[in-house]
Amino acid sequence: MQKKFERIVDWVNAEIQDGALARGDRLPSENELMERFGVSRQTVRRALEELAENGLVEGRRGSGTYVTVNTRRHKDEEVRIAVMLTCVDTYIFPSIIKGIESALTPEGCTMQIVMTDNAVEKERMLLKEFIRTRSVDGIIAETVKSGLPNPNLKLYMELENLGIPVLFVNSFYKDLDIPHVSMDDRMAGYLAARHLVECGHRRIGGIFKSDDGQGHLRYAGYMEALMEKDIKVRGGQVIWTDTEEMRGMEEDGARFLKRLKGCTACVCYNDETAYKLVRICQTAGKCVPDDLSIVGIDNSALAQFCSVPLTSFENPAEELGKTAAEMMTGRILRNEKMESREFEPQLVMRSSVRVVHEI
Q1: DSSP E strand boundaries for the chain
Q2: Please, where are the H alpha helices in the chain?
Q3: Which helix (H) or strand (E) holds 17?
Q4: Is the predicted pLDDT of residue 17 greater than 80, yes or no?
Q5: Closest CA to 153 of 182, 178, 170
Q6: Phi-psi category of residue 345: left, alpha or beta, with phi > 0 → left and psi -120 to 50 → alpha
Q7: Which positions fall inside the HTH gntR-type domain (predicted)?
Q8: Count of alpha carbons within 13 Å of 350, Cβ hemisphere only?
Q9: 210-225 tens-digit pLDDT
Q10: Would you say 241 and 295 are in contact if contact means Cβ atoms under 8 Å apart?
Q11: Angle CA(224)–CA(178)–CA(102) in degrees, nearest 5?
């Protein structure tokens, strides 16, 4: 004979399968369920516990009980993961996508790639569309200009409230309590500066990205490494640049060299910055590493194929993508908890740093 609480469980399951209840929808209150099925509050709570254990519903304090993300309208409906990146065809992003795909395919999940072009307006448009259509089961997102205030943060929280989980990859918004998978960017800046110190450098400049949270963290690590060795940090030899300025960095090469005058080494925000700084030096008749030692971050193809192969710190982009996808599918398919994970960068030594013996 069917137990009373099982009638409620079966009814909720049927409502989900029929589409009457979609992910993110609120279930009737305990009082409403008591009245509908003519049962006690204890029976209703037993049913909700059973549904929660099966990953079908989740309670939200002060708000009620909601259908969770891993319930779809039909059992045979595909799990669709949106991958929202700033760009897709350059730098480390192909590796991130490769890693994501390697984890989604075995789970039978599909990937929808969208690009923000690192524009807040386009990020907003895409997020609103996901909210309107509820067409994806989860979102793996790279942040847009995370070093600046962003008006779209409420949209990410709205997605979470709808039962569509979000996971940040490669970077994150510090003002959101949403997990991320990334390299430890503070550690990257710290290790880059420390490596130059260990090679005898004391006059170490830096170039960092101002509109990117990664740039802020890498700068913090750079400062920590220098102050740890009581090395004076000259503010004029730290250069801040934004996304637009970085694109035209070589055209403004004289400004960068003027700011780095007197430095024997420079920590660069990433390999792209380091690659362009090498070209600026060569155009000005300066030799890397004899006149200026340069360290990049990410260990991308640019580091390997630069005219002066760059010493850099490995950003395990493919592993980031794979880990993010595994966490997302675990959340959607098995109701597993997602927690932030940061990978420690590894030094890859090449030709762009020389050992010096400064007084």
Answers
A1: 57-60, 64-67, 80-85, 110-115, 138-141, 166-169, 180-183, 204-209, 238-241, 265-268, 293-295, 312-314, 341-343, 346-348
A2: 4-18, 30-37, 41-53, 93-104, 120-133, 153-161, 185-198, 213-228, 243-247, 253-259, 271-283, 301-305, 317-334
A3: helix 4-18
A4: no
A5: 178
A6: beta
A7: 2-70
A8: 24
A9: 999 999 999 999 999 9
A10: no
A11: 95
CB of 300 within 8 A of CB of 316? Answer: no
Task: State the Cα–Cα distance between residues 56 and 52, nearest whole angstrom.
Answer: 6
DSSP state of 298: B
239 neighbors 206 (Cβ within 8 angstroms): yes
* The model's pTM: 0.80
Give the number of other CB atoms < 10 A from CB of residue 39. Answer: 17
Q: What does each C-alpha distance from 233 to 18, 168, 210, 261, 325 come to in angstroms?
A: 64, 32, 18, 14, 40
Cα 299 versus chain centre, distance? 18
Query: How many CB atoms within 10 Å of residue 112?
Result: 13
Cα 251 to Cα 87: distance, rounded to the nearest angstrom: 23
Q: Which two tokens stand for residue 195?
A: 């490596």
Q: Which two tokens stand for residue 331?
A: 């959340």
For residue 154, give the H/E element and its range: helix 153-161
- pLDDT tens-digit map of 342-356: 999 999 999 999 999
CA distance 49 to 217: 42
In order of 40, 337, 341, 345, the CA distances from 330 in angstroms are: 35, 8, 15, 25
Structure tokens at 86: 């700033």
Instruction: Answer whether 156's CB lies under 8 Å from 178's CB.
Output: yes
Backbone torsions φ then ψ of 295, nearest 5 degrees: -120, 130
Nearest in space to 332 (alpha carbons), one of 178, 168, 82, 163: 163
- CB neighbourhood size of 79 (10 A): 19
| Token pair listed for 90 | 């350059």
Q: For 254, left (φ over 0), alpha (ψ -120 to 50), or beta?
A: alpha
**Closest C-alpha among 168, 107, 126 to residue 321:** 168
Contact 50, 4 (CB under 8 A): no
